[in-house]
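Design a sequence for this backbone.
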């Protein structure tokens, strides 16, 4: 029987197309892990960057004749709000300047796709086909919700492109086995899965960067000038997505230089022509594509540079925003590696990534200068240069968002696969065991993370609790810089209830200077309010971690959490990846050394007192608290309780 089955397998399509089968399976994992739970936050856009991008997208119009009430002419300038309204269902500022530190190309593509689908869907909807109406995002959706869906699917599609690029890079450097291993590890990487659920531009930037590197590797192997020109076009597109992609000139320069050094038969041509073909043409291609995709970066060049300068100030820690203060006293470089190991990728994959990068860098370094016809060494050098210089420059910044490392992780995954393949060749049993550990642990984490989205977003749960347990006349305190709760909900016979119907006041707790007068102002609001909503650790995390900057606000949070201010914890809600009953998340309360009055035993949600980077949890699995003013202490009593005097 076994012999018959083996014979059938050997004669089957599967036996002759194993690589195709595995790539189809890997792509399916990539699509499902990223494309499932597309409405993971109820489409409330809990990611602030995504929300802002979509708001800007609704104001972009390619055509306009004035008959629709939106004003004549196109409205394509991302640096200014249009004078007339451009969409129904939402309100936007009119004719004011706006910050837009993102590339224009993804914005225009999002708008074009969303409006095209909407137009086609409305035409086909005449046949009253529910499936068509849902497919083309027109049935009951406001335009901004169409932008949300299109943006998220674009992120999923971008990851599919990155996966294929990773496969081909691995195949060109080694073989199909390394290519498939690289693609498989990328498909189950939690950090990319999370980012693909956001309609931001990070996944698209990663795809563009990886495509550029694939083209450069191909150019080194083929030495065809049109590949170099194509790389220039791709660099222009990547820079048009985010300015940091300008660092791609380093591997591009390396690719050209290596080709000139390792070429066996140098083609005789004049120096001027050589410079023109190798440097000027690709540069013009990059510039042309950048201008084509980002016309207002040239037309409004001052605004473009001003936005870049603001981002530069932010990443260097020159502003005191709470999501910047969280990185105060953190270690450059090491911080990113630890975050990847603990939270965004898992230690097994992280270790082999950096071990593979280090091993390949040492190997290439020992072969310098490259000999003639060493094209394989040149290809590896191009990729090593990218990883080393990008990591060296970006990971050393004051602001250390884990997503900043996305453009180098796919290449590091290739390096990890090369290392694993080498170990398998030399020590077969140990190599396969190590591969199983890396793939198995990463896959388990992915399954737990994707399953987390089955639960409703904590901010939706907290909002429902507020609507069900509070009265419209109640006063609710929320925190500036965090997501304003409660979010709009449909209740009471289909009526849409908004946060604005409550008496909500935002506390500016992370502002400086931190003085006693500031604290007294906060306490006055506490004495008059019924509820306090702490949507995440975005504010109390950096405040409690920097008591020298916030000596008084620290006292406020301590009094709130331990019950001294008379507020009782009535709701603690979160969701988290869970493996075998172990919650895979840190404890934002214990991590800052504060004791919470343990009404709801929030620590059951955490397995470690070490908290992850705030930007990793705050968007899709924050820990939200709702406090009720149970004791109703007077202003003087509160001041005495936390300051020591009235």
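Sequence:
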């Amino acid at each position: 029987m076994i012999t018959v089955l083996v014979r059938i397998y050997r004669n089957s399509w599967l036996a002759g197309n194993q690589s195709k089968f595995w790539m189809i399976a890997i792509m399916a994992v990539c699509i499902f892990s990223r494309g499932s739970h597309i409405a993971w936050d109820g489409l409330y856009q809990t990611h602030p960057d995504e929300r802002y991008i979509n708001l800007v997208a609704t104001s972009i119009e390619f055509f306009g004749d004035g008959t629709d009430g939106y004003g004549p002419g196109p409205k394509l300038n991302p640096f200014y709000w249009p004078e007339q309204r451009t969409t129904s269902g939402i309100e936007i500022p009119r004719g004011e300047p706006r910050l837009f530190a993102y590339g224009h190309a993804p914005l225009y593509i999002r708008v074009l796709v969303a409006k095209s689908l909407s137009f086609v869907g409305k035409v086909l909807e005449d046949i009253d086909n529910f499936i068509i109406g849902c497919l083309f995002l027109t049935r009951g959706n406001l335009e901004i919700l169409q932008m949300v869906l299109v943006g998220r699917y674009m992120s999923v599609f971008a990851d599919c492109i990155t996966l294929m690029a990773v496969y081909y890079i691995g195949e060109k450097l080694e073989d199909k086995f390394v290519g498939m291993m690289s693609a498989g590890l990328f498909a189950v990487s939690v950090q990319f899965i999370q980012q693909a659920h956001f309609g931001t531009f990070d996944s698209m930037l990663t795809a563009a960067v990886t495509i550029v590197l694939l083209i450069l590797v191909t150019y080194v192997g083929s030495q065809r000038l049109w590949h170099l020109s194509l790389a220039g076009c791709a660099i222009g597109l990547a820079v048009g997505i985010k300015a940091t992609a300008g660092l791609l000139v380093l591997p591009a320069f390396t690719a050209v230089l290596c080709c000139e050094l390792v070429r066996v038969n140098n083609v005789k041509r004049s120096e001027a022509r050589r410079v023109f073909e190798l440097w000027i043409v690709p540069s013009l291609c990059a510039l042309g594509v950048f201008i084509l995709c980002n016309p207002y970066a040239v037309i409004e060049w001052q605004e473009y540079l001003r936005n870049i300068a603001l981002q530069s100030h932010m990443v260097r820690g020159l502003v005191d925003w709470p999501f910047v203060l969280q990185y105060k006293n953190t270690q450059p470089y090491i911080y990113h590696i630890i975050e990847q190991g603990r939270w965004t990728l898992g230690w097994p994959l992280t270790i082999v990534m950096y071990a593979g990068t280090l091993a390949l860098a040492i190997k290439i370094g020992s072969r310098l200068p490259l000999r003639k016809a060493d094209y394989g060494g040149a290809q590896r050098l191009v990729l090593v240069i990218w990883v080393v210089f990008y990591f060296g420059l970006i990971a050393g910044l004051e602001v250390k968002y884990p997503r900043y490392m996305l453009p180098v992780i796919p290449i590091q995954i290739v390096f990890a696969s090369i290392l694993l393949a080498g170990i398998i060749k030399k020590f077969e049993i140990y190599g396969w065991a190590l591969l199983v550990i890396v793939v198995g642990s990463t896959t388990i984490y992915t399954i737990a993370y994707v399953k987390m989205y089955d639960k409703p977003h904590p901010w939706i749960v907290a909002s429902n609790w507020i609507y069900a347990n509070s009265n419209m006349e109640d006063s609710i305190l929320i925190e500036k810089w965090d997501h304003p709760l409660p979010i709009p909900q449909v209740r009471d016979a289909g009526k849409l209830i908004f946060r604005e119907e409550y008496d909500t006041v935002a506390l500016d707790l992370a502002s400086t200077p931190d003085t006693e007068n500031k604290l007294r102002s906060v306490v006055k609001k506490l004495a008059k309010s019924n509820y306090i909503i702490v949507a995440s650790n975005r504010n109390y995390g950096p405040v409690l971690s920097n008591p020298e900057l916030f000596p008084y606000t620290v006292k406020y949070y301590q009094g709130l959490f331990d019950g001294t201010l008379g507020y009782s914890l009535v709701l603690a809600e979160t969701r988290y990846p869970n493996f075998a009953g172990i919650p895979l998340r840190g404890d934002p309360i214990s991590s800052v050394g504060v004791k919470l009055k343990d009404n709801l035993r929030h620590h059951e949600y955490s397995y470690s007192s070490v908290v992850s980077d705030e930007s990793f949890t705050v968007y899709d699995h924050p820990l939200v608290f709702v406090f009720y003013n149970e004791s109703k202490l007077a202003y003087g009593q509160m001041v005495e309780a936390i300051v020591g005097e009235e």
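The beta strands are 475-479, 489-491, 495-497, 503-507, 531-534, 567-573, 578-579, 582-583, 624-629.
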